[in-house]
UniProtKB/TrEMBL annotation:
InterPro entries: AB_hydrolase_fold, Hydrolase_4, Peptidase_S33
One Pfam family recorded for the sequence: Hydrolase_4
Residue ranges annotated for the Serine aminopeptidase S33 domain, each copy included: 53-344
Protein name: Pimeloyl-ACP methyl ester carboxylesterase
ATP-binding listed as a keyword: no
Length: 361
């Protein structure tokens, strides 16, 4: 299970080692760590960048993951912005949380509001921007629905606002592949397998996505192996780059984690992810109509083959942002990329985000 969950941490990795309070300052550049108090918990936070510049708060994926996004944003944003990385409730180096009543989207939004206020007080008179990846993209939209007045602009990278759409889209994609393979294969064993997949897909589709954790693992990790595609990668051969990164000792130094701490963080992630994936309100989350209320500048970016959120999710989000003017909203589909855009198309991915933030800051 841990290896499966590792697949969804592609660019949501960014955390730390036990050196709280350690500061580094080079011409307005800082690298500090502290905890932000929230209801019944404390959230580990690392702030890196230029204290004279606008703020970017990074929202990692999950739910339940942890922030190692410094590894990906250090050369992209940290010279021109003050970047805030924090581990969401229960994840990474934040205080452990096993109370399921505190592991909800509403609670996470309240937590983020306390993070925003804390950072605004600590670094006053600065614009605050949000950058969310995967679940972090969804998280950002949920926050904007309640507190958009506190935010200058937002980038949703591989986020979703219609969870049933992403689930149905993947089921339909796998059903199409299974039917196509069933027509052309002459292998009796494979025929049986494709028929089994089709039967199971029907069962999952009719489940209502109530207890979805096990089903999620089946359709995202098990079935794709038989059907010849990868939910998270358009270029599976690039998985080696990620593996190399996770085996590089310097990586752990940069993100201030030991391999043992990373292992513990993954265990926590598994628990929190299962809580959310077995929550009907999360699996059926749909805020398509609600985000019409958002008026802030928005960039929506995703890979054209991102089956983790559904290939139409980006267009759904863009079209739903009816009160964001065309000059203030952008939709970018990255060709030949899936959910792991920092690995599959880093140049266009980072340049697109840099241009957007520059325009609105």
């Amino acid at each position: 299970m841990k290896s499966k969950l590792l697949c969804i941490i592609a660019f949501l990795l960014v955390s730390i080692v036990p050196c709280i309070g350690h500061n580094k300052i080079y011409d307005n550049q800082i690298d500090i760590e502290f905890f932000i108090p929230v209801e019944k918990s404390k959230l580990y936070t690392r702030v890196i960048g230029n204290t004279e510049k606008p703020i970017i708060i990074s929202l990692h994926g999950g739910p339940g993951a942890f922030s190692v996004d410094h590894e990906f944003y250090k050369d992209v944003f940290e010279k021109d912005y003050l970047v805030v990385y924090f581990d969401q409730r229960g994840g990474g180096k934040s205080e452990e949380c096993t109370d399921k009543t505190m592991l909800t989207t509403d609670q996470f939004v309240e937590d983020l509001d306390m993070v925003v206020d804390y950072i605004q007080d600590k670094y006053p008179n600065k614009k605050i921007n949000l950058l969310g990846t995967s679940w972090g993209g969804t998280y950002g939209f949920l926050y904007l629905l309640k507190h958009q007045d506190k935010i200058n602009s937002f980038i949703s990278s591989s986020g979703f606002i219609d969870s049933p759409q992403r689930n149905f889209a993947l089921i339909n994609h796998e059903r199409k592949l299974a039917n196509e393979l069933l027509k052309i294969t002459t292998d009796s064993v494979k025929k049986v397998r494709y028929e089994q997949i089709l039967t199971k897909l029907d069962e999952i589709e009719k489940s209502g996505f109530k207890d979805f954790f096990e089903y999620m693992n089946v359709i995202r990790y098990e079935f794709p192996k038989d059907l010849g595609f990868d939910v998270y990668w358009a270029k599976p051969e690039l998985k080696e780059k990620k593996a190399e990164l996770l085996s590089d000792p310097d990586f752990y130094v940069r993100v201030k984690y030991t391999p043992e701490q990373l292992e513990k963080a993954i265990e926590r992630m598994e628990y929190i992810n299962e809580v959310f994936m077995n929550m009907e309100s999360y699996n059926n989350l749909n805020i398509v109509n609600e985000i019409e209320a958002i008026k802030k500048p928005i960039l929506v970016i995703q890979g054209e083959y991102d089956y983790a959120i559904g290939v139409e999710q980006g267009r759904t989000i863009y079209n739903a942002l009816k009160n964001v003017s065309k000059k203030n909203k952008e939709l970018v589909y990255i060709k030949n990329a899936s959910h792991n855009t920092p690995f599959e198309a880093p140049e266009i991915y980072y340049n697109t985000m840099k241009s957007f933030f520059k325009k609105h800051n």
